[in-house]
Structures are given as C-alpha cells and as structure tokens.
C-alpha cells in the first residue's frame, strides 16, 4: 500500500522579519488546509521572536533524511507548492540518476550462456531411421 | 564612539564542531515533538484506524518502565509515585506474533500447496525474524515513537514494538484488516529471494527422492548433459535428472557432485512451484461476503 514518506514539516520563521512575510501569510491562510489534506504529515509551526536565522521549511522523511528549504521572500502560494512537492517526494538523496530505466526481471526466458541452443551430448545423432 | 565589538571569527567554526560532535539524541528529545500528533499521523500513514490508547500501550516497552521506575526511585519519590500507570506491550506483542505467524502460514499453504511443512515454517521464520521486522519498523518510523531505555533502539525491541502494533490493530479492527496489513508489509520482503536462500536444505537429493516416491515417480537418473572446460581450472558441468527417460530438471555446477545437487534443487523448485517465473503474489482486495456466500451455498 502507499505510505507517504514525509514524516513531519517544521516551519521556522520570525514574526517580525521582512522576508518571512510569505511564511506568516502561509501560516494564517493555507497551513490549516494543508494539514487537513495531509493527515499523515505532522506540521510544526515554531515562530522564534527577535532576529534569528532565515525562515526555513524543514522536512523529515521516514528514512532519516532531513531537507531544509529556504522560504525567505516567497509568496504564500509558492510555499504551498513547495510543501506539496516535499510531501510527494521520498527521502532518497537527490543525485543524478545514471539510467532512466530499471527492471527486476532482466530476462524472461533465461539469460543466454554459451550452452543455450547447443544440443546436449545425450541427443542421438545417427542416420535417419526408416519408418516401419 | 567605537563600533560595536563583533563576535570572534572562530566562533562559527567552534559551534559547527560542537553540533557535529554532539551525541545522537532521540527525536523525542529534540525540539518540535508532539507525541499525540505523531501517533495520529502514524495511524493515518498506514491507512489504518487504530484505537489510540491500545496503540499507545503498544509502544511502551518493559525496559522503559523499569528505567523510569529506577529514575523515580533515585529522585526519592514515594512508593505510590514510583509505580507507573503504564501497561506493557508484551501481551499485545505475543498476540501479534501468533496472528502474524498463523496468517502467513495460511497464505503460503494456499499459494504453494506442494511446499512441505518445514518449508512453510522456514519462510514464516524468515519473515518474522529480528532483522527483517526491525528493518520494516525502522522505515515506518517506529523507532521514533517506541519508548525504550537505550538509544538507538536494539532490533529485538523494534521487533517487539512492531508486533505489538500488529496486535493493537488486531484488537481494534479485527482479523481481516490485520491480515491485509500483514500481507502488504511482510510479503513484499520475499521479492527477489530464492527458496533455498531462506530454507537451508542439507540434502536436496534425499528430499527430492522422498517427493518423487510420494508422487509414485521412479528414482531420477543423473546424466551429464553438457560439459565445458573439463581439463581446465573452471569446468562447467550441466547434469540432467531423468525419470523414465523424461527430463525432470537440469542444473549447472563446477564439479559433477555440485552440478547434481544443483539439479536436485532446480527439480525441487519446479515441484514446489517456487520458480522465478511463477505468478506474482495477488495483492488485490479480498472479496467480501465470502462467509455469506458459504452460508448461502450450504443451505
């Protein structure tokens, strides 16, 4: 069955900084709807007062990876899109995929080895027998 | 007036080093943690409806209760305050284990009717073994929610907690839904695995002879089918097993004895129906109303 790989989203922002305006609007308008639509993601909203680090969205996945995304100077819709993108990702590292195809069954009739299609020693090879 | 003094240059590097060298901590001890919300999210993530108090007892391990009582006694509280009001998860874990084993045995007997009891037992033991269950539990975030004494939680604790979760599901939703849950999370662990990787068979030829006598087929006759590089360091022999001059199975090997054993294993896989090209497992929804149909048909 499908198990959403995103465990929790932490929204760290400051209630007074200018670049956290989008984060504040997101919390006021869209955060509750997002939480209701994704009941298997725990959303933590933690405002830290005073000048602190930049506003950030921290996503923790089931396999332990923690992904930080800066949301400074982003609008509320952009933050919502970012949050849905993180919710639909798995926690695997984002690296270059070597090949865009993969198969668990590389061979259906058996992989070729030098002895396929060679007759076995036991098959009798002789002159044609006359029908009786 | 002088400009305000800046923080020292080395401070950032020092703080970073402190952060990297800090010992690993439980997620529950880091900031932003709400146990009730996490448990609700856990039940939604598995798409199952749990009774929350049963689920909370399922995560409580006996080592946690002992360590908590010892800590309270050390802090010098009275006897009444020392005793915790929490219940263990050992009962739920036992029930979960029994149900999981019975359900998996039933699944395998239905899917591979030719497989003998020892084979079914080996498969069930593999699926309920510590490594597999703790691996499944780790990837479902059970290690964050489980309350136990050591961190990181040892694999037997994770196994007990996950089986207790299955027991809690059994109590809340009934055997059908728990069966579907066990099927969805345990049976995919068999993908890509071969029967004889899981089931250790010492004498495959003897087992094959027993199986053939059960089906009234004569004893197999081994013959060399193909051979390559006989006089080299790496010979390859293909030995075929023939019953009444009809081929049963063929297997490769480095020496003649190894090839014969491999041929016996291939023959056993064919007989038990556990080949690589068998039908994949059926994960469709079970049809409801089967019990009602049986009742109607028996009338």
UniProtKB/TrEMBL annotation, chain A:
BP-aspect Gene Ontology terms: mitochondrial translation
Chain ranges of the Ribosomal protein/NADH dehydrogenase domain: 15-90
Annotated region described as Disordered, given as residue ranges: 103-132
Alphabetized PANTHER family for the sequence: 39S RIBOSOMAL PROTEIN L43 (PTHR21396), LARGE RIBOSOMAL SUBUNIT PROTEIN ML43 (PTHR21396:SF2)
Keyword Metal-binding: no
Gene encoding the protein: Mrpl43
Keyword vocabulary terms for this entry: Mitochondrion, Ribonucleoprotein, Ribosomal protein
Superkingdom of the organism of origin: Eukaryota
SUPFAM superfamilies noted in UniProt: Thioredoxin-like
Native organism: Mohoua ochrocephala
SMART domains attached to this UniProt entry: L51_S25_CI-B8
Pfam family, one: L51_S25_CI-B8
Gene3D superfamilies the UniProt entry points to: Glutaredoxin
Descriptive protein name: Large ribosomal subunit protein mL43
Automatic annotation (TrEMBL), chain B:
Pfam families associated with the record: DSRM_MRPL44 (PF22892), RM44_endonuclase (PF22935)
Ranges for domain Large ribosomal subunit protein mL44 dsRNA binding: 199-295
InterPro entries xref list: Ribosomal_mL44_DSRM_metazoa, RM44_endonuclase, RNase_III_sf
Keyword Coiled coil in record: no
Gene Ontology process terms (BP): mitochondrial translational elongation; RNA processing
The entry's keywords: Endonuclease, Hydrolase, Mitochondrion, Nuclease, Ribonucleoprotein, Ribosomal protein, RNA-binding, Transit peptide
Function field: Component of the 39S subunit of mitochondrial ribosome. May have a function in the assembly/stability of nascent mitochondrial polypeptides exiting the ribosome.
UniProt name for this protein: Large ribosomal subunit protein mL44
Protein species of origin: Mohoua ochrocephala
Lineage of source species: Eukaryota, Metazoa, Chordata, Craniata, Vertebrata
